[in-house]
Design a protein that fits this description.
The structure is a single chain. The chain has 275 residues and is an alpha/beta fold. The protein folds into 2 domains: 142 residues, Rossmann fold (3-Layer(aba) Sandwich); 111 residues, predicted glycosyltransferase like domains (Thrombin, subunit H), CATH 2.40.10.220. It is built from 6 helices and 11 strands. Strands 6-7-8-11-10-9 form a 6-stranded antiparallel barrel. Helix 2 runs parallel beside helix 3. The longest helix is centred in the middle third of the chain and has 23 residues. This is Response regulator. Keywords: Phosphoprotein.
Length: 275
């Protein structure tokens, strides 16, 4: 049934699988191929033609922006839709991507509805005609395409009230954990190179197991590390049904050396402050 071809580029296999699953379920006329970085994507694009590129920004070997710049210099790819899917949602980076010819910009973590809406927007009539020929339909309830609000600026979260009762005394490292339709204000309880455990008040909106997440952590000098991951565990802090606090464990999926360097620096600082 596949008529169109899409290339999914991200250094995190977890994110690539999420994108491919959404495309496969909602657009059966699109066949997906994936690559772990821009360099590998460039090689694939040189050997085969693609009708759509969905790409992360921060990747080893070749970034999404570098791939976009190269792509717009190739005659066969000058007008091919390019959707940048990234946790870098600040205004300056959006403007930079637009100047280089990006078709659409989608912030992580994204919802299937948000991704679907972007694909429909950039593919336009071509996608509709392909779906019509295959007997499928793009029609769906209006709320199916309700996109989560873009988080273009992040504010430092305040410590959750009653944090001391949850065992969070002394120096506290704050974290903002973003999901597709909510942001969790929390305090870092423990962190290493593979996961972070945060504590948050129960009165907030919580995610589900395996939901995408982006953890924003200040790593010094006003810099914020945006670490991609997924929800591994949710657990009550107290052994009471009416507990005020919930522990959330996020497993990291990034393989970008720069992000791992930022994470290593933060882990070292965190350990020193919590001895």
């Amino acid at each position: 049934m596949a008529i169109l071809k899409a290339l999914v580029v991200d250094d995190a296999s977890f994110v690539r699988d999420l994108v491919k699953r959404t495309v496969r379920q909602r657009f059966p006329v699109i066949e997906t191929t994936d690559a772990p970085n821009g360099r590998r994507a460039q090689a694939l694009m040189s050997r085969s033609n693609f009708d759509l590129v969905l790409c992360d920004w921060e990747m080893p070997e070749m970034s999404g922006l570098e791939l976009l710049q190269w792509m717009r210099q190739q005659p066969q790819y000058q007008k091919v839709p390019f959707i940048m899917i990234t946790s870098r949602g600040d205004k300056d980076h959006v403007i930079e991507a637009v100047k280089e010819g990006v078709s659409e910009y989608l912030s992580k973590p994204f919802s299937p509805e948000g991704l679907s809406k972007k694909i429909i927007k950039v593919m336009g009539r071509r996608l509709k005609e392909s779906m019509d020929r295959s007997g499928a339909s793009l029609d769906s309830p209006a709320d199916a395409f309700r996109e989560s609000a873009a988080l273009l600026t992040q504010k430092r979260a305040a410590p959750p009230a009653g944090a001391e009762r949850a065992g969070l005394r002394g120096t506290m490292s704050l974290a903002s954990v973003r999901f597709s339709d909510s942001t969790l204000k929390s305090v870092v309880k423990d962190i290493n190179l593979t996961e972070v455990r945060v504590i948050a008040r129960r009165d907030q909106q919580f995610p589900g197991i395996l939901d995408q997440a982006v953890v924003d952590i200040e790593v010094g000098d006003g810099q914020v590390a945006r670490l991609n991951g997924y929800v591994h565990q949710l657990q009550a802090v107290d052994k009471r049904q009416d507990t005020d606090f919930v522990s959330v464990t996020i497993r990291f999926v990034d393989e970008d050396p720069k992000k791992l360097e930022d994470l290593s620096r933060f882990v070292a600082t965190f350990r020193a402050a919590h001895r």
